[in-house]
Amino acid sequence: MPQAKKLGDDVGMRLLLPVGRSGWAIAAGYAGLFALLLFPAPIALILGIVGWRDIRRSRGTAEPKHGMGRVVFALITGGLGTAILIAIPVAILFFGKQTLVPAKAHESPPYQVNVPTSR
Questions:
Q1: How does pLDDT run across 58-102, given as a tens digit for each residue?
Q2: Rg (CA), the chain
Q3: Neighbours of 75 (CB within 10 A)
């Protein structure tokens, strides 16, 4: 009796449906998409790492999981978003005081504007 082909074995079905994929990879892919908004970026990074480990562990089993593209996407967007989230407060901390407060606020500007008045 021939063995029935599993839905997750068909490459075309894996492109259309999330069959045969790691649940962590699916979650990481969506978190990576939302990481473009910056705030969920650390979550996407963590889910990407967990998804990567889940897929690698399933490689030697009878039913290997797929979804490495989603995991890589989550790692890239999550990593970039997390780096930006860290860089913003650091930049404000180091450079914010210099740009927000003028050095000589009590002095008048070095230019004068003459507005003609009609009498």
A1: 998 888 888 899 999 999 999 999 999 999 888 888 876 554 444
A2: 27
A3: 20
Residue 47 CA, chain-centre distance (Å), reads 11
Matching residue, tokens 């003028």: 102
pLDDT in tens, 8-24: 667 777 667 777 788 88
pLDDT given for residue 99 in this prediction = 47
Of the chain, the end-to-end C-alpha distance in Å amounts to: 106
The whole-angstrom separation of Cα 44 and Cα 81 is: 9
20 φψ region: left (φ > 0), alpha (ψ -120 to 50), beta (else) = left
Question: Locate tokens 């913003």: which residue?
Answer: 88
Are 44 and 55 in contact, with CB atoms under 8 Å apart? Answer: no
